[in-house]
Each structure stands twice: as C-alpha cells, then as structure tokens.
Specification:
CATH architecture of the largest domain in chain A: Alpha-Beta Complex
Largest sheet of chain A: 8 strands, mixed
CATH superfamily of the largest domain in chain B: 2-enoyl-CoA Hydratase, Chain A, domain 1
Number of strands of chain B: 10
Number of helices of chain A: 10
Number of helices of chain B: 15
Radius of gyration of chain A: 19 Å
CATH superfamily of the largest domain in chain A: 2-enoyl-CoA Hydratase, Chain A, domain 1
Strand content of chain A: 15-25%
Structural class of chain A: alpha/beta
Number of domains of chain A: 2
Largest sheet of chain B: 8 strands, mixed
Helix content of chain A: 25-40%
Shape of chain A: globular
Structural class of chain B: alpha/beta
Number of domains of chain B: 2
Oligomer: heterodimer
Order of helices and strands of chain B: HHHHHEEEHHEHHEHEEHHHEHHEE
CATH class of the largest domain in chain A: Alpha Beta
Chain lengths: 309, 344
C-alpha cells in the first residue's frame, strides 16, 4: 500500500483492509535500537522503558501503541497467576499453499522467528482482581493476527475450558480476519469458535470481547461481535469490509471516523470504549456483575433454548 | 425459464466447441440446400464435437468453474425453487429495517416435505441485478434469515439454505447496521436450531456472506460451485498485487468441489450436466432435489439433541494443525518429534 502500511497478507472477507486511514494510529512502529521511541501521533520522543511501564500509551497524547500478546496478558492478569495452555499447536500447510516465493510453512517459520510465538494467539487461565477467568489474546504482529486452524482451535479450547470450569472468558482481539493461506479451514474457524460460544452462553457463562486496533473481517463476523459485552480500545479500527473495498464498490465517500471505536459506540454497536489504563478495572467490574459470585452460573446448568420471541 | 431459450453465451474456453457446432450447422444447411448426402461428414463432425466436449468439460480448471457459476444463465435459487418445489411462499423483512432482496426465504414444499428455505438470490438482467444487489446481502438479509430459521425451529420445519453469493455487501450503511454482528449471530444461533439444517452451495460460496446461512448438518455443493474464505480476485490482489492473477488464486485456495470433498469440508457433491448447470436447468434441478430429499429423510430420523450435538461435533472438528510434543512454548519448535495431527 502506498502509505507504507506493512503489506503482510492480512486478509479480510473482501480484501485487504486499509489501516492507514486512521489518523494517529500506529503504522509500523520502528523500535530503534536506542532507548527512545517517537510517538507516531504527536511526535513526542518517549523513553521506551517508561512507555512500556505506561502500558504502551503515550504520556502526552494518550496514543495507544500496539501491544504484544505477552504485554497484554501481563497488563490484565494478576501477577504470577497466568497459566498458558496449548502453546505447542503449530500450523500445517493443509492446502499445499505457496506463492512463487515461499511455501506457507516457511512463511510461518519466519513469522515464528520474528515474533517468538508459535501462532497469533496466546491462551490460558489466570485471575483478574482475584477472580478466575479464561483468557485468549491475539497478536497482530503474527501474520496480521489472522485466524487459521491454530488460532481458531486455541480460542475454541479457551472457550470450552471456561465452559467446563464455569469461568468467564475474555478474548482480546487484534486481527485482519481469516487467514487465506489455509483456505476454507480458516472460514470454518468462525463457525467453530461461534459454536463453542453458543454452548458457553447456554450455560449462562459470560463472554467479553475486547476489540483492539485493528479488528476486521472474519474475526469480526464471529467471536469478536458475540460478546455479552463488547469493549473497545480508543481509536481502534474496527469493521467487517475494508475501507478501500467499500470505497471501490460503492464510489461513496466514507464518513469521518468511519470504522473507529468511537464511530461504533455512536452507532450503538459496542458497549464501552475503555482506555487501556482502565481496561482491567472495567473488565473486572463488569465480570463481578456477570458472575454473581458464581451462583447464577451454577444454578442453571440446563440450557434453555431461545426460540423466536 | 425463458432465459434458457436464448442462445447461451459461450464462455471463453467453450469456443472450440462452438466453432465445431457452427461447422455442423453449416454442413446441415449445405446438405439440405443442395440435396446432397453429407451424412458421413456430419457424423464424423458430431464425433469430434463429442470428443471436444468431453475433453474440455472433464478437465475444468478451478477458474473455468468460477466462470461457469458466474454465467448469467446459471440457474439461481428462485429458478431452482420453481423446478423443485410445489409451493413457495415468500416471507419478508427483518421486522427492524428493510426487506433484503439478495437474501430471501419462506415456506416451501419439496416432494411433499414442508421446509423453510433461506436463499441468496442474484439477478439476471441489469435491472434485476440491481434489485438483487448482485446477490450481496445487507445485514437485514441475515437478520431476516435468522427470524425465519427460528420460526422453522419453533414449528418443526427443516431448514434448507441455498447459498449463492459473492459475499456480504461492503457498504457504509451495512457497516453502520453491523453486518459483522448479523453474520456472527446467525452462525452462533444456527447451532441451536432444533430441526435438520441442510445447506446447498449452488454457485458462489463467498466467505462470511455464505457462512452466515451455512452452518448445517449436511453441506452439499453443486459440482461447479465454489466455497472460499476469500474471492479469487481478492486473494490475487493481496498475494500477487494484481486481480488478474485470480486464476492462480482460484487454484491455490482449493475452493472447488473436488478439492473440498477431498479435504472433508463438504459432505456431498451434486452432479451437473456437462458444461455446467446453465446448459440444462431441469436435469440440474432434479439432481439437487434428489439430494435434498435424501438428506432430509436421513436427518428427519434424528432427535433435536442428536442434530445439535452432531452439528457441533462436525464444525468442532474442522481444522488442521500439528501439536508438537514436549513441554513449553516456542522452544519446542526445535523438537524434531512431532505428532502429525490431521484433524479434519
């Protein structure tokens, strides 16, 4: 793309979403070898360690830098309580997919080396303000957070684990959509994760979806929008179809702030926009209402179907 | 049906056949005009046509199949319904915003079996195409479909979903009415339908727009139809920076019926007449009808719990990955022993 956005094959249902339109959002943040980082929004030079201690939020303009899944988990889960599950799941080249330059598995390997992760999501259990929960956190730096078989499987297991243990589940989303290199298997992860959420909901257990920059396409059209609550970080790019595709298809000008958290809040599509420093407290508070000391969850174990009302 | 009487526009790869057919017409004409016996030439030419047909149609590339299902004379959902249902009573609206004409539905009777149909609908001429929004539903289409499917579950009618869409419509208003949520809720709620659900991909199975009515106990696909995570053009634009590479993408995505049945991602392929359903609507419809009836009868024997458990298990199993042995995370990458899990 012309604006220098990384050209990872992040895909959406209709094509590559455009991330560059969000003024003030991070492009690729060049982490210099030095100790300082320049805020892409206000230009302020920030001391790296201080930025990290401030949850990757610019102290001057409150710009939210991208967070790795590990940083995110550390920011949400009580110290020392996180237990990771399924770290050894890795992708295979189910379709024999290759571009002229690279086999898909080689591409995955290079991403694993780059990020130090086996795949684009980390899942596990822990406590939040003392209350136990199941958590899955996506990482945009791994092939654009795209969802293939492994991402779908880890998130599904995180939901099933929560259902089995009568825990709430929180998924922190960051994704360009389904991963096209795994073809229809990727699309089916939308169904798989949603199926698990169906059962979780039938058991009257809470699910909160947290939308971070960016959350698009196939992930949006499955678990990301199925939260009992949907909470977004400020100024995140959130939507289904990419802005460029919409523009090309409809020849329409896009409204100001289109597909940002604030736009979605205004249209009534999400519950809360929570700045990162209060995200943990916001989640913990909501979960206290929704778990009712665990009594509501245990009392009604028999699922009730909801027919047309 | 009137559309079928028109001469079919040949697809690019069908031109050799058309040329031979023109020669044949010419021979017939000469024979009758000049009252001479050309039967030997005619029968040899007929032989060549048959050979050429089977050569071309038996080795269709994925991209050629895409062209076939995008042919304007391809039978669409309503064309099929006219041929397979003795009654179709369309029901309208999502009771919230609008009546989507790209995603329709209603009561239908197929060989005496009463069902609820939800279906994508495309248009044939320009006016109809616009009216049907090129088969690209807006959120209200998915919400109407959910309303009808819940109605079906309530009154014990099996659901038949006919899929034929390039994808959900990418538009500002669609985003403002939360199309992603509409699709996601459908996917989730289809797991709770207490009746048999059969999905048949008739033409284009365009990504989330298809899956939004595609969670089913049986997923059938017409021989030339495709079902894909992304359009071949969209994939080509990302991977090769050029939509012209769509044929390559169609190949790589493994999106056609022979590939999908091999991968275990669809349950049954419904045969089409040589060259595609647009050459013979009636035969195509008969094949679809037979497959629907057989699957309806098989599923009809199952209890609601068995249906829902089976549906869960079916979609739960989709995915292929490896689980490395040994402990820990990224470190295990170097462990040479890996258990090959090919979960389908």
């Amino acid at each position: 793309m012309a604006d220098g956005t990384p050209v990872d094959p992040v895909n959406s249902v209709f094509g590559k979403p455009t991330y560059g339109q969000n003024v003030g959002q991070p492009k690729k943040v060049e982490m210099p070898k030095g100790l300082w980082v320049k805020c892409p929004s206000c230009g302020e030079m920030l001391y790296k360690q201080e930025l990290s201690a401030n949850l990757m939020v610019c102290r001057k303009c409150t710009h939210h830098f991208p967070m790795t899944a590990r940083e995110r988990i550390a920011s949400l889960v009580d110290d020392g309580t996180f237990e990771e599950f399924d770290p050894a799941l890795v992708p295979v080249n189910a379709l024999g997919f290759k571009t002229s330059s690279k086999d898909y598995v080689d591409y995955v390997k290079s991403q694993q080396e780059k990020t130090g992760m086996n795949e684009g999501v980390i899942a596990g259990t822990g406590t939040m303000d003392g209350a136990p929960l199941s958590l899955a956190v996506m990482d945009f730096s791994f092939i654009g957070g795209s969802m293939g078989s492994v991402v779908g499987e880890k998130i599904t297991r995180a939901i099933e684990r929560a259902t089995a243990r009568k825990l709430p589940v929180v998924v922190v989303c960051a994704s360009g959509g389904a991963r096209m290199q795994e073809g229809l298997f990727s699309l089916m992860q939308m169904a798989k994760t949603s199926a698990a959420l169906h059962r979780h909901g039938q058991a009257r257990l809470p699910f909160i979806s947290v939308l971070t920059h960016p959350t698009m396409a196939g992930v949006m059209a499955s678990f990301a929008t199925l939260g009992d609550l949907i909470i977004a970080e400020p100024k995140a790019l959130i939507g289904f179809a990419g802005a460029r595709v919409i523009k090309e298809t409809t020849q329409q000008d896009l409204p100001k702030g289109f597909q940002t958290s604030e736009f979605l809040l205004d249209r009534g599509l999400i519950d809360i926009v929570a700045p990162r420093p209060i995200l943990k407290a916001t989640l913990a508070n909501a979960l206290r209402y929704m778990t009712a000391g665990g009594t509501a969850a245990t009392k009604t174990s028999s699922p009730t179907e909801t027919p047309a009302s | 049906m009137s559309a079928q009487k028109n001469r079919l526009l040949p697809l690019e790869f069908e031109k050799p056949i058309v040329e031979l057919e023109n020669m044949l017409t010419d021979l017939h004409k000469r024979a009758s005009d000049n009252d001479i016996d050309l039967s030997a030439d005619i029968s040899s030419l007929q032989g060549r046509i048959a050979e050429e047909r089977s050569r071309i149609y038996s080795s269709l590339t994925p991209w050629q199949r895409v062209q076939i299902v995008r042919h304007t004379n391809r039978p669409f959902s309503l064309d099929f319904l006219k041929l397979i249902a003795s009654d179709y009573t369309e029901l309208s609206g999502d009771r919230l915003h609008a009546n989507d004409k790209a995603l329709i539905g209603g009561f239908a009777t197929i060989d005496g079996r009463r069902v609820m149909v939800v279906a994508h609908q495309k248009g044939r001429d320009t006016k109809e195409k616009l009216m049907r929004n090129f088969g690209c539903p807006n959120p209200e289409g998915y919400r109407k479909a959910l309303r009808l499917m819940r109605l079906a579950s309530k009154f014990n009618l099996p659901v038949v979903a006919l899929i034929d869409t390039p994808g959900a419509f990418p538009g500002v208003a669609s985003e403002e009415r939360h199309v992603a949520e509409a699709i996601a809720v459908n996917i989730r709620e289809m797991f709770g339908l207490e009746v048999p659900v059969i999905a048949a991909i008739l033409g284009e199975g365009g990504s989330g727009g298809a899956l939004g009515i595609g969670v089913a106990d049986r997923v059938l696909i017409m021989e030339n139809a495709y079902y894909s995570v992304i359009s071949p053009e969209g994939c080509a634009a990302i991977l090769w920076k050029d939509r012209a590479h769509a044929p390559r993408a169609a190949e790589a995505l493994k999106m056609t019926s022979p590939d999908l049945i091999k991968l275990g991602l669809v349950d049954e392929v419904i045969p089409e007449p040589a060259g595609g359903a647009h050459h013979d609507w009636v035969t195509s419809a008969e094949a679809l009808k037979a497959a629907l009836i057989r699957n309806l009868d098989e599923l009809g024997a199952l209890s609601p719990d068995a249906l829902m458990d089976g549906r869960y298990a079916k979609f739960r199993a989709y995915g292929r990955f490896q689980e490395l042995t040994g402990q820990g995370g990224a470190e295990t990458l170097d462990v040479p022993v890996a258990t090959e899990v090919a979960v389908v």
